[in-house]
């Protein structure tokens, strides 16, 4: 018999030394070795096999996980005493094992022949479980303390690619939810929260339980609770609320922007890990919605639209698209689930309409969440501002596919009927300005007028294309054009009136975009010579926007271009009506272009384009126009020589509003 077969099973052996050394001196870590062997004999199945109740061979990874294609998820419940020392002892054991004699190696192979084959064919745990993205992204309690360098490399290299950069402006990596989670002083926190409650919340219904957040602020102010005792999701929402409040404060522009971005950075620091993917909560979804509005008002709507997609996916994952109580871990009541759905649809509908992108919240657009529309002359309850905006966003998603020429020609009757039905169901102060009895009601009236007319004019916008007039009759064309022109005029007028009673007209990206885009389209439409009301609206708009130049400095690139185009078109209109032949002469006495608080020179038009603008993103019929525009000397020259018969106003509008991202994407 071979020596390995004659060995008694009760002979003590230790893989880190010869038999003589073990017999003479007991190892210092005997208790740990005995504990490891006991765990090896009584080892439970891995977590995936225990969850699926299938056979497990107790390897790392096991054969079942390998066959099912999720070897990186093969984890075992670790003993707390061993989890911290496992990685420290693995490498020395491997090194000492390689120094054993040939006899010991052969005996080991005889004792366990299958383990050798598995180890040669399967990657070791250090190449799968420990270094996988999932294990690195897990909480610190799972990762050993010796993996700080690997986590730092992951946060600085991989997280920015996923849009979760946790690096501050000075280049230092911030730990999510720790170094940037400090709350401001008491006075500032009370002031910013009050601004959100009084100025932002009435126009952005995201937090349905704002009283609970106010109670949290009171407990932090009175020192009844420390910030470290509050969960990360609530702190993230609180910082997002403070950032939104700072945007509508009365501070100087530079201080206001700096303070808002500081709070925004604090809120985003809580999203630096993948906890939002593992444990979505109501507070987290609310925080993401508020952050979406903050990013919009920071003139970064593209980032807000991307973040909105993440918010919608999280909401779908917890079952918010289903009416009734929310299944799963949230346990929300039907009313709170409905409120979150409506807030998500509100944000997604307006952003998708402004960007011309397909919406992602169609599954949450449930008409049963909305109150019924009342018939004319009926005694049913009228819609308040929030309900009217919810209905408007519902109609936006319903008709968003009707933005082509053929769809508008087919569905314009239904579109007009739906909007007329919405208007007849409004409360009295939302239908008639004379019925408004408070500043709040006036703000609601003009805000709804701006958004409702912008949505309606956007649906009518295909009438400006060169192909539409050939597809419809003269009566249909006249009907749609009149509704389109009236919607533009009413929208711009509402924006002008709102500017005098609310800061939303220049602080909110949605209000600025809807007002300026309506004014630009109105300027591109050829007006009758006696259309004095249109010229008056344009002049009044330019006057109220140029009164405070610091607000214009916060406009996005597209909005600055739109304002300059409106100013140039106004000068051309004045030259045409003067009849003195000045149209062919350079304009030396017209009002200057004022952007960023300074008088702007008439620089070449193509210099204002972002280098990321690509001709391939435009339709084929617009590319020739774009190439010709880039060859023009200036915006005034281009508008002066523009041939309205050769190119449609819609093509010109799409070119000017093509860039809706700020040049500086940093926070």
From TrEMBL:
Compositionally skewed regions (Polar residues) per UniProt: 1-13, 91-100
GO function term, MF aspect, one: DNA-binding transcription factor activity, RNA polymerase II-specific
Entry keyword Nucleus: yes
Entry keywords, A to Z: Metal-binding, Nucleus
Zn(2)-C6 fungal-type domain residues: 45-76
GO BP term, pick one: DNA-templated transcription
PROSITE patterns, A to Z: ZN2_CY6_FUNGAL_1, ZN2_CY6_FUNGAL_2
SUPFAM superfamilies recorded: Zn2/Cys6 DNA-binding domain
Pfam families named among the record's database cross-references: Fungal_trans, Zn_clus
Stored InterPro entries: UbiX-like (IPR004507), XnlR_reg_dom (IPR007219), Zn2-C6_fun-type_DNA-bd_sf (IPR036864), Zn2Cys6_DnaBD (IPR001138)
Source taxon at top rank: Eukaryota
Keyword Repeat carried by entry: no
Listed CDD domains: fungal_TF_MHR, GAL4
Spans annotated as Disordered: 1-27, 83-106, 573-613
Protein name: Zn(2)-C6 fungal-type domain-containing protein
The organism's taxonomic lineage, starting at the top: Eukaryota, Fungi, Dikarya, Ascomycota, Pezizomycotina
